[in-house]
């Protein structure tokens, strides 16, 4: 059972998951940093890098949004138990997470600045989470490498004995 002054276990789990995903995202890009994006020595194809980055960023965003949404609801119910508010203000506070245009109404900010800040963070997370895949930069670098290879060539001095007779008879 969770008491009033303790966060629920799922709230802690959401933030721990977000932290773990952020560390995994960092380690993944740290691992591929400076390596070839194309060619025989590439780590993974570039399309996979973008997909992995999108997946990690979305999981990070969902876990943070889940934790913040839980905190928002808990604090909203805490305020509703402790202070009186107009019905219109209560309705504004309940719809602030679903409608970003409510953020432009001064009544929401005046009623509870902390809930207003949480709502702004929740809406800003949607924009911020979409940035990591766009932040990937692949730069072209000229690479010089040396290796021995066998190149087939034509040896004009090697002629079969039969072909020499044919060539000499055809001379004019």
Q: Which H/E pattern describes the elements?
A: HHHHHHH
Looking at how many chains there are and whether they match, the oligomeric state comes to single chain
Q: Would you tell me the overall average pLDDT?
A: 79
Shape: rod-shaped
Q: Give the uncertain stretches in residue-range form.
A: none
What class do helices, strands and sheet pairing give? Answer: mainly alpha
The overall strand count is 0
Task: Tell me roughly what share of residues is in helical segments.
Answer: 55-70%
Number of helices: 7
The figure for the number of domains is: 1
Rounded to the nearest angstrom, the radius of gyration is 33 Å
- Give the end-to-end Cα distance, rounded to a whole number of Å: 110 Å
Determine the strand fraction and express it as a percent band: under 5%
Describe the protein in words:
The protein is an all-alpha fold and 172 residues long. The chain is built from 7 helices and no strands. The mean pLDDT is 79.
How would you summarize the topology of this molecule?
Blueprint: H1 9-32, H2 46-82, H3 87-95, H4 106-111, H5 113-129, H6 131-134, H7 161-169
Quick summary:
The chain has seven helices and no strands. The chain has helices at 9-32, 46-82, 87-95, 106-111, 113-129, 131-134, 161-169.
